[in-house]
Amino acid sequence: MVRTGxxxxxxxxxxxxxxxxxxxxxxxxxxxxxxALHHHHPQPPPLKRRGLAxxxxxxxxxxxxxQTTPEQRLDALDKRITRLEDMNQVEKVQRAYGYFVDKGxxxxxxxxxxxxxxxxxxxxxxxxxxxxxxxxxxxxxxxxGPKEGVLAxxxxxxxxxxxSPDGKTAWVRSRAFVMSVGGWGLPLYEDEFVKEGGVWxxxxxxxxxxxxxSWKGWGHxxxxxxxPDKFDPPPDLPPSTVYLTxxxxxxxxxxxxxxxxxxxxPVEPVGAYQAPPGTPQQAASLKVGRLADGTQPIAQPPRx
Amino acid sequence: MSRAVxxxxxxxxxxxxxxxxxxxRIAAYRHRVELLEAQNAVEDLQATYGYYFDKGLWDQAxxxxxxxxxxxxxQRGVYIGQxxxxxxxxxxxxxxxxxxxxNNHMMxxxxxxxxxxxxxxxxxxxxxxxxxxxxxxxxxxxxVYENEYVKQRGVWKISRLHFxxxxxxxxxxxxxxxxxxxxxxxxxxxxxKPPSEVYRAFPGVYIPPxxxxxxxxxxxxxxxxxxxxxxxxxx
Lengths: 304, 235
Description:
The complex is a heterodimer of chains A (about 300) and B (about 240).
Chain A: H1 14-21, H2 29-38, H3 47-67, H4 70-102, H5 106-110, E1 113-121, E2 126-128, H6 130-141, E3 152-163, E4 169-180, E5 183-196, E6 199-207, E7 209-213, H7 280-285
Parallel strand pairs in A: 1-6
Antiparallel strand pairs in A: 1-2, 3-4, 4-5, 5-6, 5-7
Chain B: H1 3-14, H2 17-54, H3 58-62, E1 65-73, E2 78-80, H4 82-89, E3 102-114, E4 120-132, E5 139-152, E6 155-170
Parallel strand pairs in B: 1-6
Antiparallel strand pairs in B: 1-2, 3-4, 4-5, 5-6
């Protein structure tokens, strides 16, 4: 699945990215197919035929229900209980990630990832594999353990968990609320999990930023998104999407459809490279979130 | 033929093998559903504690504990029993939130582990805190709860509540300019026991021990080393 948000000059790498990331967003198929297991809602037939259809349905369906053995009913029950347990466990893994970040437990944190997992935070680019996750954390933030005078809480809130029909893949949309010595921050997560040997692990963590500000607050200043060479180590692959953070915004695509209408969330072209260079759309995107003179401040409060 | 053998034969005839296995499956699933319900009940219990504590409803909050339950907040020491817990909470303000007070203690990010027998549980929570009193500036705080729960006569209750304050700061100044130290044990309402662990809040660092095992490796997190602290004397 090709992300519309991919920068043009990265499109040649889209295939590599796709295999590395296994499609950032499964576009809602998971929820739709999961629901199909339990609640099939066919379009109603025309009024005249509805009575006949209902009668036919009863005739066909009644023996089928009678033929359901207790074993089959228990199998179905087992599946539903397992799904609830899986949802709880996936939430725990996401929350444990947050508690490990809070206390700088990078080795423990990396153990939450599958061997071939990917990590992408802010605009830093993609890190491939569990070992690189650990290298990223320890190079960027120092050795394991909290440091005197440093607070870097990444509190994990508001999870929406979905489990694939086969029970082997899960997705979470959630957020971190960052309370740190540097100020405030709001990463968002669209993460994928895999069940290996009965254990849920991170398969892909993607944490694009919504907003970062100093302690004075987002009414006073805002930081830019990060970028691949802002700090060491460099990523294995460039960012999957180039986007701007507050005061601009990017709607991170939802892995699940609208829970009431059932319709997938439309994925709109976004980001600084949403349109070919030279087009009015691309020119406009470069000014969103920037100053009136077209410049974009780097890690400094914007001027009036 | 002995009576026992007859009884066994009768049972074997009355309960075919496949039906027996159905019963076992139903019993196993019932147990798993009970564990899921227990998790929800514990989450509700802790959330309710937070809503009561926010509004200074000390009587309601203390009633959530078992009779010999314990309450420990920061370095204030350990209070044991509902009456002492309710009195300890008066250190945070009068019963019923006083005018101009803000006492929000949010209960977030739960990792709840129910024991296999479904009778006890442990939980780690993220505790964001927003405080104010008349004539003072607002305070931002944060900490970690490591709590224990027990099911008595079908009702989940708090057996041990321990809030490890991580950091508190002045609303305007922020962590770089303001680090509010924790309160010590009260002379007015002294605790039943001294603090169970001596540590400093921010700018000091301390790792509240994890009650749960690593969710992927399954290994204990008990031996994660504490960071050194020159003031407390921890190397």
